[in-house]
Amino acid sequence: MRAQLLLQQIKKRGVTHVVGLPDNGSRALFEALWSDNEIEVVAVTREGEAFAIASGLYLGGSRPLVIIQNTGLFETGDAYRGTAYNMGIPLVMILGYRGLKTMLPGSPRVDSAATFLEPTLKAWDIPYSIMMEDHDVEPMIDAAFEKAASTSMPAAVLLGVDTV
Amino acid sequence: MLDKYSCLRKLAEYRRENDIVVSTMSCAAPWAALANGPLDFASVDSAMGHAADFAYGLALAQPERRVIVLNGDGSTLMCLGTLVTVAQRPAANFTLVITENGTYEVTGNQPVPGAGTVDFAAMARGAGLDKVYTLSSEEEFDDHLALHFNIEGPAVFVWKIATATEPVPKPDRPIRERAHRLRACLIS
Q1: Which residue from A9, A58, A59, B159 could staple onto A141, CB 3.0 to 4.6 Å apart?
Q2: A97 touches A118 (CB < 8 A)
Q3: Could you report the predicted ipTM of this complex, rounded to two decimals?
């Protein structure tokens, strides 16, 4: 998935800050963000911080976006619940779907980071869609922002393939 | 040793109308008794350990306002990485207060891990923060009171406070309402 395409859509939505932690899937997107230098990137040490910082940013009038991997999402449990969820923050998050391919038939090993993800999102009441191709980017990013705005609650877009 | 209630009273008296104060745990109820407007946000019914990073987000979004967070020692230990996050992207208007009493006060004063041995000021400095002050006496506190508001941050003040017996705080409105009241005030 082209990182520049994602960056273009993020900019189109007026994002002021990306708060997150890169992984292999989002690496190219973070590199594009740093090179472009229009959106401020706030790098966190652990993913729970991302939801707290993004919630503060939103309440302060900014328009943050969170980008973390699924493994990091699992760590955020209480931070997500206590900040973005309890505060009713219309926050969009892009989540790396590590291990998605390992769930395909014939895979010698299944990554539990992948098998835990969608059940966790459902349990945590986070609506989501999965981007697999370039043509998914615009409609899914748009839909996530519109869902978050209409519900005043977080919404997710999953990165099913690596950015390049 | 400092008296928390006296420190908070002095902070409330000095505080300017545009400053944001985020409180949590054993400071939340005493602060609300002193100041409870839209810019006084109690990080309660939220996530323990995430008042400081939440307040830091506010500080990034509102660079023209001072943002002071009244954090506990147990809360600070829960998210130590925030010291590094704040240091690597400094916010000049951000002041972190660590109220150190060595206990989880609102659950009955059970000891915090490392109580009496952990050096919060050293950890903050080690994270890359250089404006770090440890205050142990009323005279020291009075001398540094204005600095909480006026220093070019990020700044960390470790208040060595006496143990007290605050119960679990119970804010007067739900967190979602408090959050959106804060936002409405900030973007108006």
Answers
A1: A9
A2: no
A3: 0.98
